[in-house]
Amino acid sequence: MTRQPAITPFGYDDPAEAIAVLLARLSPVDTETLPAERAAGRVLAEPITADRPSPACDVSAMDGYAVRMADLANGSLPIAGEVITGGAPPAMPSGAVLRIFTGGAVPPGAEAVVPREHVDEGHDAIELPGDLAVQPGQQIRRVGENAQRGEVVIEPGCVIDATIAAALATVGAVSLRVYRRVKLKALVTGDEVAKPQAAVEPWQVRDSNGPALGAMFGGVPWVEWLGVEHAVDDAALLEGRITGALGACDALLITGGVSMGDRDHVPHTLATAGVELLFHKLPQRPGKPLLGAVGPGGQAVLALPGNPVSVMATARRFVVAALRKCAGITHDETVGLVEVTNADDKTLPLHWSRLVRWVGDGEVELVATRGSGDIASAARSDGFVLIPPGEQGRGPWPFYPWRVGG
Amino acid sequence: MTRQPAITPFGYDDPAEAIAVLLARLSPVDTETLPAERAAGRVLAEPITADRPSPACDVSAMDGYAVRMADLANGSLPIAGEVITGGAPPAMPSGAVLRIFTGGAVPPGAEAVVPREHVDEGHDAIELPGDLAVQPGQQIRRVGENAQRGEVVIEPGCVIDATIAAALATVGAVSLRVYRRVKLKALVTGDEVAKPQAAVEPWQVRDSNGPALGAMFGGVPWVEWLGVEHAVDDAALLEGRITGALGACDALLITGGVSMGDRDHVPHTLATAGVELLFHKLPQRPGKPLLGAVGPGGQAVLALPGNPVSVMATARRFVVAALRKCAGITHDETVGLVEVTNADDKTLPLHWSRLVRWVGDGEVELVATRGSGDIASAARSDGFVLIPPGEQGRGPWPFYPWRVGG
Questions:
Q1: Is the Cβ pair B166, A41 closer than 8 Å?
Q2: Quick one: which H or E segment has residue B162?
Q3: Measured at the alpha carbon of residue B69, what is the angle toward residues B67 and B74, in degrees to the nearest 5?
Q4: Which of A36, A328, B285, B286 would be B372's cystine partner, CB 3.0–4.6 Å?
């Protein structure tokens, strides 16, 4: 029987190094302009500056009374009127106060705001307690104290979350330059794999990798999920699929066929299709055969081992990292640490992703599993902890939830 | 001037108690049926059982050779054929082996699989090393070892993430009962609030609360975001808006007008509209005036203080908890713990949500802020840590990222 030549492993001791090598070869996609109300969850591609100071004028920080300092010696002060919140401030009287509410514009000449709960409020006047201490400027938020006009308030490269959306609205940014969504496609290989809706013989399995990848990435707002194609384990047919897919996407995922078996056509077919291999095989479980590469057009290419849990674990860590880079996100994904409440003494000479489920804030427990084909156990997990070679115990360990965050 | 009667605070020492009281009064929304490929991110409303054992027959765990134990005494065994992966297994010969690949159906009569790397492979035969130890059943995944036919493999109440999607596909669940999306609406009050696209005077602010809530909830797959209405600070007009909104939604958010100022019409207007108040004012910063209630149709009602950071922090914690209950999610949101690298010695006699940004795995740093109106600082944060009254230091503390997870 003919054997294909072995591809040299690139020999990264730590999968994180392989990720760094891949990311260094990827570039952000193009940009487009969107109305702000449609840009939530997308990646900002331009710095945003304040169009006016924030606050735009001196405003009251509380409900109370605008006062002049010189008037405070009087124990009683008439209420001369009211600042209409959202309206132009009236002139500040002398020897009297103006009622003001949180966010109201401080009238020119007013030197402080006295909170209403510090005074005795009458209908027409307020009484100041004898021991009331009022600092000049108290309860006044000064014009520009949050941001000056022209100051960059948001840097590009961030995902537009609630706080960014609020800041964009505040500075009147109604049209935004954002990165377009990363076009992501998946090819599922494996002659034994049937579509989920198919009637199956006992020796067939329904494809779970396509649905898993769709669920993981289909809802990410900065990803355009192009869906799954099924490819048979034939090198020539596979090459055509790969070439076709690379012409349509920014990132290509392939599941299965990446080990060194006779039917594992993916590594050589990728090379034939002009894809540059960056790493193949990493010291990790699951996902040892993982292959990372860059396409002729700079596409991110990740060939994932075909076992379902291998697909999910490698997609969650490696594919997410690659997609973030393609999407224009400038910061690495940061992950929380969790402690394992039912830690055992098992250890591996590999970087080990172990399935866990949440049991409390900052605490997880290991989910028993029969290996990378055991989808039922994976479905009982909330994510995995990453345990370095030779280590064991409660941790804390980095935790990757299945759900992809911003 | 007329003063409205004070509403009695309900006096929860811990905001978590108030959340529990609110959740106890909320019920999941109705269910609907969806094709599985459109159900990612939704909440499963039925238990899912295995339609066949998993694996559905004995399958090989590796690439190798199917053998009979009695034949292993021979040092050399002819290769009689091959198991086509995805095909029916051939009959198992005696005195010979069959080539088999990962996932291939183990032929009846085969008693173990010997990995190809353990033997010397020739074209027509394999040589077994003299010291090769083969255990009966090795490298065979047994029918049903992951799940038996009829076994519940997924319980209802979970968000359909990648692992659940994989499990659903594996058992052939192509049509699913899921909870319908939670209809969420927001009313933004405040006469000083202009729409984001409006030209604004210095004493006006553009509304940032509507965009913040839209960004926080608009992309959550189990939420149907009905958008924002702006309401002026007039009790009668507000009551009409509240009544109208309650007729259309499962959960209603109101921002602003919830303190005890003369213009804070929300608490009393809610009562007039038949909404039952459960708590008002909690010992927390920001968000002290927060009001939680349940509408006449069982709607979750949360009136958030109007300051932008108060809105974001209370929405992230309280609204998310309420929406999860309405959505049919059966487990509480669990949160990671982080350490604060630049902890100071400040402390408050309140439950304190402090803005932080990620600096490394499991580590955050405090973001300097000028208070709950300081949107620019909030935009530099990734979320907040929750610090109990009187406490300070590195933590670890519970961390709420702005992005709402599954």
A1: no
A2: helix B162-170
A3: 85
A4: B286
Q: Which residues of chain B does A191 touch, with a Cβ-Cβ cutoff of 8 Å?
A: 84-87
Is B9 in the A-facing interface, judged by CB distances under 8 Å? no
Give the tens place of pLDDT for each residue, A72-108: 998 899 999 999 888 899 999 999 999 998 889 999 9
List, in order, residues 6 or more apart from B247 with CB less than 8 Å away: none
CB of B343 within 8 Å of any CB in chain A?
Answer: no
Read off the DSSP letter of residue B376. H
pLDDT score for A1: 37
pLDDT tens digits along B106-142: 999 999 999 999 999 999 999 999 899 999 999 999 9
Q: What predicted TM-score, i.e. pTM, was given to this entire model?
A: 0.92
A212 touches chain B (CB under 8 A): yes
**Confidence at residue A405, expressed as pLDDT on a 0 to 100 scale:** 67
Q: What is the ipTM of this complex?
A: 0.91
Average pLDDT of chain B, as a whole number: 92
Average pLDDT over residues B336-346: 95
Distance CA B110, CA B94 (A): 9
List CB contacts (< 8 A) between B212 and chain A: 162-163, 165-166, 169
What pairing do the DSSP bridges indicate for beta strands B31-35 and B175-179? antiparallel
Say how far apart CA B302 and CA B284 lie, in whole Å: 16
Q: How far is the C-alpha of A281 from the C-alpha of B245, rounded, in Å?
A: 56
Whole-number Å distance between alpha carbons of B31 and B362: 38
- Residue B228: which of B275, B182, B196, B192 has the closest Cα? B196
pLDDT at B22: 98
CA dist., res. B304 & res. B307, Å (int)? 9
pLDDT tens track for A23-61? 999 999 999 999 999 999 999 999 999 999 988 999 998
**What domains are defined for chain A?**
15-29+181-327 (3.40.980.10), 33-53+156-178 (no CATH), 59-141 (2.170.190.11), 336-401 (2.40.340.10)
- The C-alpha atoms of residue B296 and residue A373 are separated, in whole angstroms, by 49
**Distance from C-alpha of A145 to C-alpha of B193, rounded to nearest angstrom:** 19
Q: How far is CA A281 from CA A260, A303, A350, in A?
A: 10, 10, 12
Take residue B385 and report the two structure tokens written for it: 């840590």
